[in-house]
């Protein structure tokens, strides 16, 4: 810990009675420090006298804009933490409501579904009212809904204001609902068929309206073939990742019989690999690697994680399979998102950069939810009374999605490199 001295302090270093070592270090070399103010720290004084302590998490060298960006990143991390909390206890929550195994996939899928459905509309609304204001309002809404989920079931119901839903939100919700409901009711149920058809109609109507809108949520006319390839690759990779994370945690808890705390401890490699992936992405970009190459490289790790899960033995050691799944798969997650965002941003005008980020985030979250719904259908169809067979079927689907994404992304990287050389 670096404690800067006031001007007038003697150079060099010495120890005070608290055991801290005072170093005459320029404050601009600090990243984070505790800034303590001392009085009487003058030449000849044996020990400084503390007259006030001002603890500052951020030194003065960090600008207000940088502080806001850091706060924003911390808040985004908490959003992902709330998603992680839906994976581990989903079995306990489902059992308390009498839900079947296939129904518990709806909990994390609902998160991705609503996030993906509202992302585009929120991105456009942020352009109108301001992203900072909307960010604060969104966190207030998250807090309110988080608190409401802890209320007892016997509490009186309060009428909530019904907001008019956009066609895009309705279409995405209904289409996704059909896929996530089908594992329980089957495709022969009118509920699934009706919601699927209505959802498709609304999605098609949404794109038809967007082409004629003066201020569209998605600039449909400005999205070219290259942007569609990027979105397809992101959707394939992240849909397989949703399958990987949900069924791997359920395998550890339901099949191997580990506790939730043990399952949580097994996820320790994730943040470490995520940090390494972030640094690796920045390093590769600085060294001249193209975003399509990084995107193709990221799809490899989505595929590797699902292959390990689909081929592992039930009672293997943690270090032989699950550890490597969580040590390698985050490379795909934390390299594909920035690469896709960079690619899509370069394909859109400068005034549409916010739309590019929203579009990538929409595809990321929505594809996870849709992938879980399709995996649930596969699980029910191939299980035949064996839970493990159902899990393997879902992982094979993940291999197919990520493998196809790897092929497409590799072809796109080759095409992009050839086009760049031609120009």
What does this structure look like?
The protein contains 13 helices and four strands. It has 423 residues and is mainly alpha-helical. The protein has a single domain (64-147, 164-422), classed as Growth Hormone, Chain: A. The strands form two sheets. A two-stranded antiparallel sheet has the order 1-2. A two-stranded antiparallel ribbon has the order 3-4. The longest helix is centred in the C-terminal third of the chain and has 36 residues, at 387-422. The radius of gyration is 26 Å and the shape is globular. The termini are far apart. Mean pLDDT is 77; it is low at 1-59 and 155-165.
Give a quick precis of the structure.
The chain is mostly helical.
Q: What layout of secondary structure does this protein have?
A:
Layout: E1 13-15, E2 21-23, E3 37-39, E4 49-52, H1 64-84, H2 90-96, H3 106-129, H4 131-148, H5 167-185, H6 190-212, H7 225-255, H8 260-265, H9 269-286, H10 291-311, H11 322-347, H12 353-383, H13 387-422
Antiparallel strand pairs: 1-2, 3-4
SSE class:
mainly alpha
Mean pLDDT: 77
Number of helices: 13
What is the radius of gyration?
Answer: 26 Å
Helix content: 55-70%
Name of the CATH superfamily: MFS general substrate transporter like domains
State the end-to-end distance: 52 Å
Q: How many beta-strand segments? A: 4
Strand order of the largest sheet: 1-2
Main beta sheet: 2 strands, antiparallel
Q: Provide the succession of SSEs.
A: EEEEHHHHHHHHHHHHH
Whole-number count of domains: 1
Strand content: under 5%
Overall shape: it is globular
Looking at the structure, the CATH topology is Growth Hormone, Chain: A
The low-pLDDT segments are 1-59, 155-165
